[in-house]
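User: I'm writing a tutorial on reading structure tokens. Could you give me a worked example: one chain, its sequence, then its tokens, then a sentence or two explaining what the tokens reveal?
Assistant: Sure. Here is the example chain.
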Amino acid sequence: EEPTYCVCGKPWGDRFMLACEGPCKRWFHGACVNVSPKRAKLLDAWLCTECTVKTAPPSLERPAPVAPAATTLPVLSHDIWAHITSFVPIPTRIVRVAPLSRLLLSAVNASLEPWCRSHDLALDHRPRQSSRRGPFGVLAVLGPWVHVALKHGCHGCFDSVGEFACKRTSAALAASPVAMCGNAAARRFLLCKRCARRDALVLRLNQAGYEVAMESIHGRPLYPRHFHCPLGAYVDGAPDEV
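And here are its predicted structure tokens:
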């Protein structure tokens, strides 16, 4: 019986054949492995498909990254949040950060306590129910120091305590409330003397329907010429020039 070769499992049949130089050392018909006699003369060595796979070097490609297991980030403590929010400017802290969540409101509240105490501002110990009806709503309950800063601080800069009241005009109240410091129902807030004298700020407030008082809550005039200071009088030892 004639021996068989190649992947076709047939005998030589007087056809062109070539031998695999790999581990198998088998013979294959050139037509079956798509290698012509002319091409075979140009090859230094030929390997069949199985030997090519066996003798191939290890792949240099990196393995696909394995997705890490789901992890939970550690929850930051209240003190850390308060420390982080202390680097944010006070107006941004109150208007932008505090309304985001109760956690951030609590952190902003803690960060404002040193500011309030440095300006001799104390908490309002009146009944909680009455404070809920104020212009700043639930802040008096969840953020008492935020409520104190909004009530007594200057809404123009929050660098100092406000002295001069800024109120909605009757015409503006009859029309529609304008948002101020994150609260659409703010009808009255305070400005410091420096902010109350800023013409650009006063102009914007007037356009929004607010008017700045010319006398502070302590009875001091905004300008030396106002209230018991006639034109040409002496102010602090110097004549009040026109």
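What the tokens reveal: The chain has eleven helices and seven strands. The mean pLDDT is 75.
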